[in-house]
Amino acid sequence: MTYRDKKDSGFFNRFSFGKSKHDEATGGAFYESFLQLYVDAYLVVNLETNDIADFNHHMITLFALPPEVNLKKLQINQIMMRYLAEDSENKDLMMNRIPDCWEGEAGFINYNKENFYTCVNSNVFYRDDIKWQIISFRNITDKKNATQELKSYKLNAEKAARAKARFLSSMSHELRTPLNGIIGTSNLVLLEPDLPENIKRHMNILKYSSEHMLGIINDILDFSKIDAGKLELVRHSFNLKECLTNIVEAFEVQFNNKELAFIFLQPDTFNTISVCSDEVKLSQILNNLLSNALKFTLTGNVTFKVIIENTNEQTTTISFNVSDTGIGIPVEKQSEIFQGFAQVYTDDQSRKFGGTGLGLTISEKLVNKFGGQLKVESVPGEGSCFHFSVCFENGKPKEIKAKVPHDVGFEHITDTQGLRILVVEDNAINATILISFLHRWGVLVKEAENGIHALELIKYHTFDLILMDLEMPQMDGYATIKKIRETDLKTPVLAFTASLLEDMESLITESGFNDYVLKPYKPAELKKKILDYAPHRKIDYA
Fold first, then answer.
1. Is 27's pLDDT higher than 60?
2. Cα separations (Å) of 415 from 274, 404, 422, 528, 542?
3. Sign of CA dihedral 521, 524, 530, 532
4. Beta bridge partners of 106
5. Cα dihedral 360, 386, 288, 301 in deg (nearest 10)
6. DSSP category for residue 339
7. Cys-Cys with 64: which of 111, 224, 251, 292 at CB 3.0–4.6 Å?
8. 386 with 376: CB under 8 angstroms?
Protein backbone atom coordinates (compact mmCIF):
# COMPACT_ATOMS: atom_id res chain seq x y z
CA MET A 1 0.00 0.00 0.00
CA THR A 2 1.43 3.44 -0.92
CA TYR A 3 0.41 6.92 0.20
CA ARG A 4 -2.75 6.55 -1.92
CA ASP A 5 -4.90 3.43 -2.21
CA LYS A 6 -4.92 2.22 -5.83
CA LYS A 7 -8.68 1.99 -5.65
CA ASP A 8 -8.83 5.71 -4.84
CA SER A 9 -9.12 7.44 -8.18
CA GLY A 10 -8.16 10.85 -6.78
CA PHE A 11 -10.03 14.08 -6.12
CA PHE A 12 -9.95 15.43 -9.65
CA ASN A 13 -10.95 12.14 -11.21
CA ARG A 14 -14.16 12.25 -9.14
CA PHE A 15 -15.28 15.54 -10.67
CA SER A 16 -16.60 16.20 -14.15
CA PHE A 17 -14.29 18.14 -16.42
CA GLY A 18 -15.74 17.19 -19.79
CA LYS A 19 -19.10 16.80 -21.46
CA SER A 20 -18.97 13.03 -22.08
CA LYS A 21 -18.07 10.15 -19.85
CA HIS A 22 -14.91 9.72 -21.88
CA ASP A 23 -14.11 13.42 -21.47
CA GLU A 24 -14.83 13.26 -17.77
CA ALA A 25 -12.49 10.34 -17.30
CA THR A 26 -9.67 11.68 -19.44
CA GLY A 27 -10.03 15.25 -18.14
CA GLY A 28 -9.92 14.19 -14.53
CA ALA A 29 -6.98 11.91 -15.21
CA PHE A 30 -5.14 14.75 -16.93
CA TYR A 31 -5.47 17.15 -14.01
CA GLU A 32 -4.69 14.40 -11.51
CA SER A 33 -1.48 13.53 -13.36
CA PHE A 34 -0.57 17.18 -13.72
CA LEU A 35 -0.84 17.90 -9.99
CA GLN A 36 0.92 14.69 -9.01
CA LEU A 37 3.88 15.64 -11.18
CA TYR A 38 3.91 19.27 -10.07
CA VAL A 39 7.01 20.15 -7.99
CA ASP A 40 5.08 21.80 -5.17
CA ALA A 41 3.24 19.91 -2.44
CA TYR A 42 -0.48 20.55 -2.35
CA LEU A 43 -3.58 19.94 -0.31
CA VAL A 44 -7.22 20.26 -1.37
CA VAL A 45 -9.42 21.37 1.53
CA ASN A 46 -13.20 21.37 1.84
CA LEU A 47 -13.82 24.77 3.40
CA GLU A 48 -17.22 23.70 4.74
CA THR A 49 -15.73 20.94 6.89
CA ASN A 50 -11.99 21.91 6.87
CA ASP A 51 -11.30 18.28 5.86
CA ILE A 52 -8.44 17.44 3.53
CA ALA A 53 -10.05 16.05 0.38
CA ASP A 54 -6.86 15.28 -1.54
CA PHE A 55 -3.08 15.72 -1.62
CA ASN A 56 -0.17 14.84 -3.90
CA HIS A 57 2.88 12.70 -3.31
CA HIS A 58 5.14 15.78 -2.87
CA MET A 59 3.19 16.49 0.31
CA ILE A 60 4.45 13.16 1.67
CA THR A 61 8.06 13.76 0.67
CA LEU A 62 8.14 17.42 1.79
CA PHE A 63 6.93 16.55 5.28
CA ALA A 64 8.99 13.29 5.31
CA LEU A 65 5.87 11.28 6.11
CA PRO A 66 5.81 7.45 5.98
CA PRO A 67 4.61 6.21 2.55
CA GLU A 68 1.49 4.58 3.96
CA VAL A 69 0.19 7.79 5.51
CA ASN A 70 -3.10 9.00 4.11
CA LEU A 71 -3.94 12.62 4.92
CA LYS A 72 -7.48 12.46 3.64
CA LYS A 73 -10.24 13.04 6.18
CA LEU A 74 -7.77 14.82 8.48
CA GLN A 75 -8.53 18.43 9.17
CA ILE A 76 -6.15 21.11 7.91
CA ASN A 77 -5.80 22.39 11.50
CA GLN A 78 -4.41 19.00 12.55
CA ILE A 79 -1.59 19.35 10.01
CA MET A 80 -0.80 22.85 11.19
CA MET A 81 -0.89 21.98 14.90
CA ARG A 82 1.44 19.05 14.44
CA TYR A 83 3.98 20.36 11.92
CA LEU A 84 3.91 24.17 12.05
CA ALA A 85 7.08 25.51 13.74
CA GLU A 86 6.65 27.46 16.96
CA ASP A 87 8.55 30.45 15.54
CA SER A 88 6.99 30.27 12.09
CA GLU A 89 6.19 33.40 10.16
CA ASN A 90 2.43 33.98 9.78
CA LYS A 91 1.78 31.45 12.55
CA ASP A 92 -1.56 32.84 13.73
CA LEU A 93 -2.91 33.06 10.21
CA MET A 94 -1.81 29.50 9.37
CA MET A 95 -3.34 28.09 12.56
CA ASN A 96 -6.73 29.78 12.14
CA ARG A 97 -7.60 30.02 8.50
CA ILE A 98 -5.49 30.69 5.44
CA PRO A 99 -7.14 33.42 3.36
CA ASP A 100 -8.72 32.50 0.04
CA CYS A 101 -6.15 34.13 -2.21
CA TRP A 102 -2.92 34.56 -0.30
CA GLU A 103 0.81 34.01 -0.54
CA GLY A 104 3.30 34.05 2.30
CA GLU A 105 6.02 32.14 4.11
CA ALA A 106 5.78 29.57 6.88
CA GLY A 107 8.21 27.35 8.76
CA PHE A 108 7.52 23.69 9.53
CA ILE A 109 9.11 20.75 11.37
CA ASN A 110 8.78 17.52 9.40
CA TYR A 111 8.10 13.99 10.62
CA ASN A 112 11.85 13.51 11.23
CA LYS A 113 12.03 16.66 13.40
CA GLU A 114 13.87 18.65 10.74
CA ASN A 115 13.08 22.30 10.08
CA PHE A 116 12.17 23.51 6.63
CA TYR A 117 10.70 26.67 5.15
CA THR A 118 7.96 27.02 2.56
CA CYS A 119 6.26 29.56 0.39
CA VAL A 120 2.54 28.94 0.87
CA ASN A 121 0.04 29.79 -1.86
CA SER A 122 -3.74 29.63 -1.46
CA ASN A 123 -6.45 29.68 -4.15
CA VAL A 124 -10.17 28.73 -4.08
CA PHE A 125 -12.70 27.34 -6.53
CA TYR A 126 -16.32 26.16 -6.39
CA ARG A 127 -17.62 22.74 -7.41
CA ASP A 128 -21.11 21.37 -6.74
CA ASP A 129 -21.87 24.45 -4.64
CA ILE A 130 -18.99 23.60 -2.33
CA LYS A 131 -16.07 25.96 -1.77
CA TRP A 132 -12.71 24.25 -2.10
CA GLN A 133 -9.24 25.58 -1.31
CA ILE A 134 -5.99 24.46 -2.93
CA ILE A 135 -2.99 25.12 -0.69
CA SER A 136 0.45 24.64 -2.23
CA PHE A 137 3.75 24.44 -0.32
CA ARG A 138 6.99 25.24 -2.14
CA ASN A 139 10.23 24.31 -0.38
CA ILE A 140 12.38 27.45 -0.03
CA THR A 141 14.71 26.13 2.69
CA ASP A 142 17.87 26.57 0.61
CA LYS A 143 16.86 30.09 -0.42
CA LYS A 144 15.92 30.98 3.16
CA ASN A 145 19.19 29.60 4.54
CA ALA A 146 21.14 31.45 1.87
CA THR A 147 19.33 34.68 2.78
CA GLN A 148 20.03 34.15 6.47
CA GLU A 149 23.67 33.41 5.73
CA LEU A 150 23.86 36.56 3.63
CA LYS A 151 22.32 38.61 6.44
CA SER A 152 24.69 37.03 8.92
CA TYR A 153 27.63 37.69 6.62
CA LYS A 154 26.53 41.31 6.18
CA LEU A 155 26.16 41.80 9.93
CA ASN A 156 29.55 40.21 10.56
CA ALA A 157 31.10 42.34 7.80
CA GLU A 158 29.59 45.49 9.29
CA LYS A 159 30.74 44.45 12.74
CA ALA A 160 34.24 43.77 11.39
CA ALA A 161 34.24 47.14 9.60
CA ARG A 162 33.28 48.92 12.84
CA ALA A 163 35.94 46.99 14.74
CA LYS A 164 38.48 47.86 12.06
CA ALA A 165 37.50 51.54 12.21
CA ARG A 166 37.81 51.51 16.03
CA PHE A 167 41.17 49.75 15.78
CA LEU A 168 42.51 52.20 13.21
CA SER A 169 41.24 55.14 15.21
CA SER A 170 42.84 53.74 18.36
CA MET A 171 46.12 52.99 16.57
CA SER A 172 46.08 56.44 15.01
CA HIS A 173 45.67 57.98 18.45
CA GLU A 174 48.27 55.75 20.11
CA LEU A 175 50.88 56.33 17.37
CA ARG A 176 50.21 60.00 16.71
CA THR A 177 50.29 60.99 20.36
CA PRO A 178 53.97 60.11 20.95
CA LEU A 179 54.88 61.36 17.46
CA ASN A 180 53.29 64.67 18.38
CA GLY A 181 55.60 64.80 21.38
CA ILE A 182 58.68 63.96 19.30
CA ILE A 183 57.94 66.29 16.39
CA GLY A 184 56.70 69.08 18.66
CA THR A 185 59.79 68.89 20.86
CA SER A 186 62.03 68.85 17.78
CA ASN A 187 60.39 72.03 16.50
CA LEU A 188 60.79 73.70 19.88
CA VAL A 189 64.47 72.76 20.19
CA LEU A 190 65.18 73.96 16.63
CA LEU A 191 63.82 77.40 17.62
CA GLU A 192 66.39 77.79 20.40
CA PRO A 193 68.90 80.59 19.66
CA ASP A 194 72.59 79.77 19.11
CA LEU A 195 71.90 76.06 18.76
CA PRO A 196 75.15 74.16 17.99
CA GLU A 197 75.24 72.80 14.44
CA ASN A 198 75.70 69.18 15.55
CA ILE A 199 72.62 69.43 17.81
CA LYS A 200 70.65 71.09 15.01
CA ARG A 201 71.69 68.30 12.62
CA HIS A 202 70.63 65.60 15.09
CA MET A 203 67.28 67.30 15.73
CA ASN A 204 66.59 67.62 12.01
CA ILE A 205 67.28 63.89 11.60
CA LEU A 206 64.94 63.15 14.50
CA LYS A 207 62.27 65.39 13.02
CA TYR A 208 62.64 63.94 9.51
CA SER A 209 62.45 60.35 10.78
CA SER A 210 59.35 61.11 12.85
CA GLU A 211 57.62 62.82 9.95
CA HIS A 212 58.52 59.89 7.71
CA MET A 213 56.89 57.52 10.19
CA LEU A 214 53.85 59.80 10.31
CA GLY A 215 53.65 59.64 6.51
CA ILE A 216 53.52 55.84 6.62
CA ILE A 217 50.73 55.94 9.23
CA ASN A 218 48.78 58.39 7.07
CA ASP A 219 49.19 56.17 3.99
CA ILE A 220 47.86 53.11 5.79
CA LEU A 221 44.88 55.03 7.17
CA ASP A 222 44.10 56.61 3.79
CA PHE A 223 44.36 53.24 2.05
CA SER A 224 41.98 51.73 4.58
CA LYS A 225 39.44 54.54 4.05
CA ILE A 226 39.67 54.24 0.27
CA ASP A 227 39.38 50.45 0.47
CA ALA A 228 36.22 50.83 2.56
CA GLY A 229 34.77 53.41 0.17
CA LYS A 230 34.73 56.04 2.94
CA LEU A 231 36.97 58.66 1.37
CA GLU A 232 35.10 61.60 -0.19
CA LEU A 233 36.16 64.95 -1.62
CA VAL A 234 35.50 68.14 0.35
CA ARG A 235 34.68 71.04 -1.97
CA HIS A 236 35.71 74.61 -1.32
CA SER A 237 37.10 77.49 -3.36
CA PHE A 238 40.88 77.98 -3.41
CA ASN A 239 43.54 79.69 -5.51
CA LEU A 240 45.36 77.09 -7.61
CA LYS A 241 48.63 79.01 -7.84
CA GLU A 242 48.78 79.43 -4.06
CA CYS A 243 48.16 75.69 -3.59
CA LEU A 244 50.88 74.68 -6.07
CA THR A 245 53.37 77.24 -4.76
CA ASN A 246 53.00 75.83 -1.24
CA ILE A 247 53.74 72.33 -2.56
CA VAL A 248 56.74 73.44 -4.62
CA GLU A 249 58.31 75.45 -1.80
CA ALA A 250 57.95 72.52 0.57
CA PHE A 251 60.01 70.34 -1.81
CA GLU A 252 62.71 72.82 -2.85
CA VAL A 253 64.90 72.20 0.20
CA GLN A 254 64.67 68.41 -0.26
CA PHE A 255 65.72 68.62 -3.91
CA ASN A 256 68.57 70.99 -3.04
CA ASN A 257 69.80 68.60 -0.34
CA LYS A 258 69.87 65.79 -2.91
CA GLU A 259 71.53 68.10 -5.50
CA LEU A 260 68.74 67.56 -8.03
CA ALA A 261 67.35 70.25 -10.29
CA PHE A 262 63.68 70.92 -9.58
CA ILE A 263 61.88 72.64 -12.45
CA PHE A 264 58.39 74.07 -11.97
CA LEU A 265 56.56 75.19 -15.12
CA GLN A 266 53.19 76.92 -14.90
CA PRO A 267 51.11 79.36 -16.99
CA ASP A 268 51.41 83.07 -16.30
CA THR A 269 47.63 83.31 -15.92
CA PHE A 270 47.58 81.06 -12.83
CA ASN A 271 47.41 84.08 -10.51
CA THR A 272 43.75 84.60 -11.36
CA ILE A 273 42.53 80.98 -11.37
CA SER A 274 40.44 79.77 -8.45
CA VAL A 275 38.72 76.40 -8.48
CA CYS A 276 36.10 74.71 -6.33
CA SER A 277 37.43 71.32 -5.26
CA ASP A 278 39.37 69.50 -2.54
CA GLU A 279 42.67 71.31 -2.04
CA VAL A 280 43.95 68.85 0.58
CA LYS A 281 43.38 65.76 -1.61
CA LEU A 282 44.86 67.45 -4.69
CA SER A 283 47.93 68.40 -2.65
CA GLN A 284 48.18 64.83 -1.41
CA ILE A 285 48.26 63.48 -4.97
CA LEU A 286 50.94 65.92 -6.08
CA ASN A 287 52.96 65.42 -2.89
CA ASN A 288 52.96 61.66 -3.50
CA LEU A 289 54.05 62.03 -7.13
CA LEU A 290 56.83 64.49 -6.27
CA SER A 291 57.98 62.34 -3.33
CA ASN A 292 58.17 59.35 -5.66
CA ALA A 293 60.17 61.31 -8.23
CA LEU A 294 62.52 62.58 -5.52
CA LYS A 295 62.99 59.10 -4.10
CA PHE A 296 63.76 57.28 -7.35
CA THR A 297 65.86 60.00 -9.04
CA LEU A 298 69.55 59.81 -8.20
CA THR A 299 70.91 62.32 -10.74
CA GLY A 300 69.45 64.82 -13.17
CA ASN A 301 66.19 66.62 -12.59
CA VAL A 302 62.50 66.48 -11.77
CA THR A 303 60.04 68.61 -13.73
CA PHE A 304 56.62 69.58 -12.42
CA LYS A 305 54.58 70.98 -15.31
CA VAL A 306 51.05 72.38 -15.09
CA ILE A 307 49.04 73.20 -18.22
CA ILE A 308 45.64 74.82 -18.76
CA GLU A 309 44.00 72.52 -21.31
CA ASN A 310 40.64 74.27 -21.52
CA THR A 311 38.71 76.99 -19.71
CA ASN A 312 35.27 78.56 -19.93
CA GLU A 313 32.85 80.37 -17.63
CA GLN A 314 31.94 77.23 -15.67
CA THR A 315 35.02 74.97 -15.68
CA THR A 316 38.78 74.85 -16.10
CA THR A 317 40.61 71.70 -17.17
CA ILE A 318 44.17 71.41 -15.85
CA SER A 319 46.78 68.77 -16.64
CA PHE A 320 49.48 67.91 -14.08
CA ASN A 321 52.74 66.27 -15.14
CA VAL A 322 55.59 65.05 -12.93
CA SER A 323 58.57 63.71 -14.90
CA ASP A 324 61.99 62.64 -13.70
CA THR A 325 65.31 61.23 -14.89
CA GLY A 326 65.20 58.40 -12.36
CA ILE A 327 65.61 54.64 -12.54
CA GLY A 328 62.35 54.13 -14.46
CA ILE A 329 59.85 51.28 -14.36
CA PRO A 330 60.04 48.09 -16.47
CA VAL A 331 57.23 47.88 -19.05
CA GLU A 332 55.93 44.59 -17.68
CA LYS A 333 55.68 46.12 -14.19
CA GLN A 334 53.87 49.34 -15.12
CA SER A 335 50.45 47.72 -14.76
CA GLU A 336 51.27 46.74 -11.15
CA ILE A 337 52.39 50.06 -9.71
CA PHE A 338 48.87 51.16 -8.74
CA GLN A 339 48.12 47.96 -6.81
CA GLY A 340 48.16 48.21 -3.01
CA PHE A 341 51.47 47.36 -1.29
CA ALA A 342 53.04 46.53 -4.67
CA GLN A 343 56.81 46.78 -5.02
CA VAL A 344 57.81 46.62 -8.69
CA TYR A 345 61.55 46.74 -8.12
CA THR A 346 63.98 44.06 -7.04
CA ASP A 347 64.36 43.22 -3.35
CA ASP A 348 67.65 45.12 -3.22
CA GLN A 349 66.07 48.20 -4.81
CA SER A 350 63.01 48.00 -2.55
CA ARG A 351 65.21 47.86 0.54
CA LYS A 352 67.32 50.74 -0.79
CA PHE A 353 64.43 53.08 -1.56
CA GLY A 354 61.96 51.87 1.09
CA GLY A 355 58.29 52.83 1.26
CA THR A 356 55.01 50.99 1.78
CA GLY A 357 53.99 50.79 -1.87
CA LEU A 358 50.77 52.68 -1.07
CA GLY A 359 51.54 56.18 -2.37
CA LEU A 360 50.72 55.54 -6.02
CA THR A 361 47.71 53.38 -5.13
CA ILE A 362 46.25 56.19 -3.03
CA SER A 363 47.08 58.78 -5.71
CA GLU A 364 45.43 56.72 -8.45
CA LYS A 365 42.24 56.29 -6.39
CA LEU A 366 42.15 59.99 -5.51
CA VAL A 367 42.62 61.02 -9.15
CA ASN A 368 39.65 58.80 -9.99
CA LYS A 369 37.64 60.67 -7.33
CA PHE A 370 38.49 63.89 -9.15
CA GLY A 371 37.17 62.35 -12.37
CA GLY A 372 40.59 61.85 -13.96
CA GLN A 373 42.93 58.96 -14.69
CA LEU A 374 46.51 58.71 -13.47
CA LYS A 375 48.79 57.44 -16.25
CA VAL A 376 52.47 56.56 -16.41
CA GLU A 377 55.06 56.51 -19.17
CA SER A 378 58.45 55.14 -18.26
CA VAL A 379 61.71 53.81 -19.72
CA PRO A 380 64.05 51.87 -17.41
CA GLY A 381 67.24 53.82 -16.83
CA GLU A 382 65.85 57.01 -18.39
CA GLY A 383 63.00 58.09 -16.12
CA SER A 384 59.25 58.23 -15.65
CA CYS A 385 56.37 60.63 -16.25
CA PHE A 386 53.14 60.52 -14.27
CA HIS A 387 50.32 62.69 -15.57
CA PHE A 388 46.59 63.29 -15.17
CA SER A 389 43.97 65.89 -16.04
CA VAL A 390 41.13 67.24 -13.91
CA CYS A 391 38.13 69.32 -14.96
CA PHE A 392 37.57 71.74 -12.05
CA GLU A 393 34.49 73.79 -11.40
CA ASN A 394 35.49 77.44 -11.33
CA GLY A 395 35.59 78.97 -7.87
CA LYS A 396 35.29 82.50 -6.58
CA PRO A 397 38.35 84.70 -7.29
CA LYS A 398 40.65 84.73 -4.30
CA GLU A 399 43.65 86.91 -3.65
CA ILE A 400 46.92 85.26 -2.72
CA LYS A 401 47.67 86.17 0.88
CA ALA A 402 51.09 86.91 2.27
CA LYS A 403 52.65 83.55 3.05
CA VAL A 404 53.25 82.29 6.56
CA PRO A 405 56.71 80.68 6.79
CA HIS A 406 56.56 76.91 7.20
CA ASP A 407 58.63 76.09 10.24
CA VAL A 408 60.95 78.98 11.02
CA GLY A 409 60.38 82.65 11.72
CA PHE A 410 56.73 82.31 12.66
CA GLU A 411 57.49 83.34 16.23
CA HIS A 412 58.13 86.86 14.93
CA ILE A 413 54.54 87.24 13.67
CA THR A 414 52.62 89.06 16.39
CA ASP A 415 49.03 88.99 15.09
CA THR A 416 48.11 86.43 17.77
CA GLN A 417 49.40 88.71 20.48
CA GLY A 418 46.87 89.01 23.29
CA LEU A 419 44.53 86.26 22.19
CA ARG A 420 43.12 84.30 25.12
CA ILE A 421 42.96 80.56 24.48
CA LEU A 422 41.78 77.71 26.67
CA VAL A 423 43.78 74.49 26.17
CA VAL A 424 41.88 71.34 27.20
CA GLU A 425 44.37 68.46 27.10
CA ASP A 426 44.96 65.55 29.49
CA ASN A 427 48.35 64.51 28.06
CA ALA A 428 50.98 66.51 29.93
CA ILE A 429 53.61 66.28 27.16
CA ASN A 430 51.22 67.42 24.44
CA ALA A 431 49.90 70.21 26.66
CA THR A 432 53.44 71.45 27.46
CA ILE A 433 54.45 71.55 23.78
CA LEU A 434 51.25 73.28 22.69
CA ILE A 435 51.41 75.88 25.43
CA SER A 436 55.09 76.55 24.63
CA PHE A 437 54.18 77.45 21.05
CA LEU A 438 51.22 79.57 22.16
CA HIS A 439 53.40 81.51 24.60
CA ARG A 440 55.93 82.17 21.83
CA TRP A 441 53.11 83.73 19.78
CA GLY A 442 52.02 86.00 22.61
CA VAL A 443 48.89 84.04 23.44
CA LEU A 444 47.48 84.15 26.97
CA VAL A 445 46.73 80.56 27.96
CA LYS A 446 44.64 78.83 30.56
CA GLU A 447 44.81 75.05 30.85
CA ALA A 448 42.26 72.35 31.74
CA GLU A 449 43.06 68.66 32.05
CA ASN A 450 39.56 67.38 31.17
CA GLY A 451 36.07 68.49 30.18
CA ILE A 452 34.81 69.00 33.72
CA HIS A 453 37.70 71.34 34.52
CA ALA A 454 37.15 73.17 31.21
CA LEU A 455 33.47 73.83 32.00
CA GLU A 456 34.45 75.29 35.37
CA LEU A 457 36.92 77.70 33.73
CA ILE A 458 34.36 78.72 31.10
CA LYS A 459 31.96 79.76 33.89
CA TYR A 460 34.36 82.44 35.13
CA HIS A 461 36.41 83.40 32.05
CA THR A 462 35.82 84.38 28.44
CA PHE A 463 38.07 83.04 25.68
CA ASP A 464 38.78 83.94 22.06
CA LEU A 465 39.27 80.27 21.20
CA ILE A 466 39.23 76.81 22.79
CA LEU A 467 41.60 74.01 21.72
CA MET A 468 40.19 70.74 23.08
CA ASP A 469 41.36 67.14 22.93
CA LEU A 470 38.72 64.49 22.16
CA GLU A 471 40.04 61.58 24.22
CA MET A 472 40.03 62.59 27.88
CA PRO A 473 39.10 60.92 31.20
CA GLN A 474 35.95 61.81 33.20
CA MET A 475 34.46 63.92 30.38
CA ASP A 476 35.69 63.63 26.79
CA GLY A 477 35.66 66.29 24.10
CA TYR A 478 32.33 65.27 22.58
CA ALA A 479 30.46 65.50 25.89
CA THR A 480 32.19 68.79 26.73
CA ILE A 481 31.35 70.52 23.43
CA LYS A 482 27.74 69.42 23.83
CA LYS A 483 27.60 71.16 27.22
CA ILE A 484 29.35 74.25 25.89
CA ARG A 485 26.97 74.64 22.95
CA GLU A 486 23.94 74.59 25.27
CA THR A 487 24.81 78.15 26.34
CA ASP A 488 27.55 79.35 23.96
CA LEU A 489 27.24 79.15 20.18
CA LYS A 490 29.81 81.85 19.38
CA THR A 491 33.16 80.86 20.89
CA PRO A 492 35.24 78.96 18.30
CA VAL A 493 36.18 75.48 19.53
CA LEU A 494 38.73 73.41 17.63
CA ALA A 495 39.04 69.68 18.24
CA PHE A 496 42.68 68.91 18.98
CA THR A 497 43.06 65.21 18.29
CA ALA A 498 45.39 62.40 17.30
CA SER A 499 42.50 60.19 16.15
CA LEU A 500 41.93 60.22 12.40
CA LEU A 501 38.32 59.07 12.15
CA GLU A 502 36.14 58.15 9.19
CA ASP A 503 34.05 61.12 8.01
CA MET A 504 36.19 63.31 10.23
CA GLU A 505 34.94 66.65 8.90
CA SER A 506 31.23 65.86 9.21
CA LEU A 507 31.63 64.11 12.57
CA ILE A 508 33.50 67.06 14.07
CA THR A 509 31.16 69.76 12.77
CA GLU A 510 28.00 67.82 13.65
CA SER A 511 29.31 67.45 17.21
CA GLY A 512 29.52 71.23 17.57
CA PHE A 513 33.20 71.93 16.86
CA ASN A 514 34.15 74.62 14.34
CA ASP A 515 37.10 72.63 12.95
CA TYR A 516 39.90 70.32 14.04
CA VAL A 517 43.68 70.24 14.32
CA LEU A 518 45.25 66.84 13.75
CA LYS A 519 48.26 65.84 15.83
CA PRO A 520 51.12 65.92 15.02
CA TYR A 521 50.75 69.42 13.59
CA LYS A 522 53.04 71.89 11.90
CA PRO A 523 53.34 74.99 14.09
CA ALA A 524 52.65 77.35 11.17
CA GLU A 525 49.52 75.43 10.22
CA LEU A 526 48.27 75.50 13.80
CA LYS A 527 48.84 79.22 13.98
CA LYS A 528 47.04 79.80 10.70
CA LYS A 529 44.07 77.78 11.95
CA ILE A 530 43.96 79.89 15.13
CA LEU A 531 44.01 83.09 13.08
CA ASP A 532 41.24 81.78 10.82
CA TYR A 533 38.89 81.36 13.77
CA ALA A 534 40.00 84.01 16.27
CA PRO A 535 41.47 86.92 14.31
CA HIS A 536 42.35 90.07 16.23
CA ARG A 537 39.81 89.57 19.04
CA LYS A 538 41.22 91.21 22.13
CA ILE A 539 39.06 90.67 25.21
CA ASP A 540 39.55 90.69 28.93
CA TYR A 541 38.56 88.11 31.50
CA ALA A 542 35.06 88.66 32.82
1. no
2. 27, 12, 18, 10, 23
3. negative
4. 118
5. 140
6. S
7. 111
8. yes
